[in-house]
């Protein structure tokens, strides 16, 4: 089957005018991978049906492309000349790519020194004007919210409703991939809370069962868990280093309506799940993307989630190559070897 992106596939569920010109990179259609080895590790002998929705396989390497195709399509339709966003990196890369495709100017504000290398590299390569600010993601978001009131430029953060419209197609795909049913648990990282909002909206709209939502925040950046804005958020999972989520209220609604849970997981637990994903399932994600798995593991261990015979989907939001520095820092360096067959044989046989 020819795949032409999420708007083409789910047009019927999206409120676009008939005459929009779709800006797409054929995003979506990401695999839902059954993870039996990981399931057995986090819930031994429980017959947990664990699936990983590998959103890192989108065109710019993160789930953001689903929302960006929609936001950019609508921006072009409305005659925009340029777009702007604040970002911890993935939104920036996605906005930059789709703006390039649409021929629009693109400005991205990123927190200086707190954006993973792959995201910076991509944003620069796509030709965005990358503005490194001496502040957090939250400061950047305040700035872009203000500038769009003063200047004719379109905001493409997830406060733009079209971002949520596009991102909700992730739920449709999961239901389609599970042969028309929704999972019991839907687990994901929560930063600015756009994705949790979008997934819940999608499940409700598709109307083929509703999962309970499990959101994970990094313990150094967990405003929704603690109920308090975090002035100086910190975590190794820089993608979700956010202290005042824009869609906080909608996240609480999703949790409340679904009978869900929001929990904080430590950086150590995030990294442990990040390693498990790579080493037991061969799936390399960026650290933030392991937060849903870490949250599920924690809740099962605490007895708050009964895994027996249940179906759980964890959304893996971004590719591991986004953050090569953390990967290299968190693993043993390669062993050096003389370029001889003897040295190789000695290594192979445990010498
Ligand atoms: N995972 C990754 C890899 C992300 O990049 C983000 C958010 C999230 C999870 C959390 O999603 O914000 O919708 O709750 N990244 C944004 C960005 C903030 O600028 O790239 P959320």
How would you portray this structure in words?
With 351 residues, the chain is α/β, with parallel strands linked by helices. It contains 15 helices and ten strands. It has helices at 6-10, 36-42, 64-77, 90-102, 117-125, 137-150, 161-167, 169-177, 194-206, 223-226, 248-258, 267-281, 291-302, 324-329, 341-348; strands spanning 32-34, 49-54, 82-86, 105-111, 129-133, 154-155, 185-189, 212-218, 261-265, 311-316. The strands form two sheets. Strands 1-2-10-7-8-9 form a six-stranded mixed β-sheet, sandwiched between helices. Strands 5-4-3-6 form a four-stranded parallel β-sheet. Helix 4 (90-102) links the parallel strand 3 and strand 4 (105-111). Helix 9 crosses helix 11 (248-258). The longest helix is centred in the last third of the chain and has 15 residues, at 267-281. The radius of gyration is 20 Å and the shape is globular.
SSE topology:
Blueprint: H1 6-10, E1 32-34, H2 36-42, E2 49-54, H3 64-77, E3 82-86, H4 90-102, E4 105-111, H5 117-125, E5 129-133, H6 137-150, E6 154-155, H7 161-167, H8 169-177, E7 185-189, H9 194-206, E8 212-218, H10 223-226, H11 248-258, E9 261-265, H12 267-281, H13 291-302, E10 311-316, H14 324-329, H15 341-348
Parallel strand pairs: 2-10, 3-4, 3-6, 4-5, 7-8, 7-10, 8-9
Antiparallel strand pairs: 1-2
Helix pairs in contact: 3-4, 3-7, 4-5, 7-9, 8-9, 9-11, 12-13
Bound molecules: ligand F0G.
The site of ligand F0G has 23 residues, from helix 4 and helix 9.
């Amino acid at each position: 089957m020819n795949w032409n992106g999420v708007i083409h596939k789910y047009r019927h569920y999206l409120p676009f005018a008939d005459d929009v010109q779709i800006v797409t990179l054929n995003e979506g259609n990401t695999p839902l991978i059954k993870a039996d080895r990981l399931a057995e590790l986090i819930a031994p002998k429980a017959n947990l049906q664990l699936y990983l929705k590998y959103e890192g396989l989108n065109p710019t390497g993160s789930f953001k492309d689903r929302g960006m195709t929609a936001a950019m399509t609508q921006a072009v339709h409305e005659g925009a000349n340029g777009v702007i966003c604040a970002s911890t990196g993935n939104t920036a890369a996605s906005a930059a790519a789709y703006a390039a495709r649409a021929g629009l100017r693109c400005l991205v504000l990123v927190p200086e020194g707190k954006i993973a290398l792959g995201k910076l590299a991509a944003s620069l390569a796509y030709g965005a004007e990358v503005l490194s600010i001496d502040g957090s993601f939250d400061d950047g978001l305040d700035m872009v919210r203000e500038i769009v009131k003063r200047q004719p430029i379109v905001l493409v953060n997830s406060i733009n409703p079209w971002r949520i419209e596009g991102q909700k197609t992730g739920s449709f795909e999961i239901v389609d991939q599970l042969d028309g049913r929704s999972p019991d648990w839907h687990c994901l990282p929560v930063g600015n809370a756009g994705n949790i909002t979008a997934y819940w909206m999608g499940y409700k709209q598709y109307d083929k069962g509703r999962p309970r939502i499990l959101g994970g925040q990094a313990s150094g950046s967990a405003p929704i868990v603690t109920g308090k804005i975090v002035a100086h958020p910190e975590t190794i999972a820089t993608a979700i280093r956010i202290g005042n989520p824009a869609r906080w209220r909608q996240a609480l609604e999703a949790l409340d309506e679904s009978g869900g849970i929001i929990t904080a997981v430590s950086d150590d637990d995030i990294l442990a799940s990040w390693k498990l994903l790579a080493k037991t399932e061969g799936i390399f994600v960026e650290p933030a993307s392991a937060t849903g798995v870490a949250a599920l593991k924690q809740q099962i261990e605490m007895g708050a989630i009964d895994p027996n015979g249940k179906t759980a989907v964890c959304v893996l939001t971004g590719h591991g190559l986004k953050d090569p520095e953390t990967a290299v820092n968190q693993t043993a360096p390669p062993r050096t070897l003389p370029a001889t067959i003897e040295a190789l044989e000695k290594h192979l046989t445990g010498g």
